[in-house]
Amino acid sequence: MSATTHDPADNHPTLAELRAVAQPPEHIARYNAEHWAGALYIRHLSVHATRAMLPTGISPNGVTWLMIAVGVLGAFALPLHGLTGPLLCVVAMQLQILLDCSDGEVARWRQRFSPAGIYLDRIGHYATEAAIPVALGLRADGWSLAHPLDVGGWTVLGFLVAVLVLMNKAFTDLVHVARAKTGRPMLEDVAATTRSRVSGLAAVRRALGYLPIFRAFVAVEASLLALAAGVADVVRGDLLGTQVLVVVMVPLAVITAGGHLLGVLTSSRLD
């Protein structure tokens, strides 16, 4: 069954029918389109979640709103005592990426696409991935609901990382803004458009491919790092693990954002 012959009003497709329409190979295979967890296991689960949601009548944007809520609430669970917060965060980020897959699958099945859906999806990722370093800073400060104003330097560092994360994301979106404002077409989602024309930078980028530090600021990986830091906290009986993670994230965020900006300016994306 193809996307042009299925019935978008059918809320009870078979898994095979749903996969054929909601998970087309040309969509999944796009450059930078799929998180490794999506390709490895989430897509195998999301099709079941999508099939379960179709009879409820939920809209694609409704699924995206769920994704936003799960991501932000999961991030701000981090300050909870012991391993409770980090574990909740890890689970929430897994659920968020599943919902991120499902909102697109619902949209493709129902043939309901809109700029609002893309807009909300970006908000979900931006809000979550900025909230995680802020929440790590709060945890490093020993923040609790009993003393909500009792924050210090660790929280400030967390906010600094969050700002850098948002700037890094803006560097990508501003490429599309700049091209649209000058009447240029949308960029193809292929690796060639991101390649730096400065040989030294291109070599550095290839080298960093073996150590992708930018993934420290992606929700799934950031939650796993927070869990590792939380384990260190529990073993030591203090918050040193989380505090070290916050400190390390500052230069990594600077390198990631700065390198991304240089990469954009030295590539063909603004031609």
TrEMBL record:
Transmembrane segments annotated in the record for this chain: 63-83, 151-171, 213-232, 244-265
Signal peptide: none
Presence of the UniProt keyword Transmembrane helix in the record: yes
Keywords: Membrane, Transmembrane, Transmembrane helix
Keyword Membrane among record annotations: yes
Any Pfam family: CDP-OH_P_transf
Protein's name in the database: CDP-alcohol phosphatidyltransferase family protein
Organism: Pedococcus ginsenosidimutans
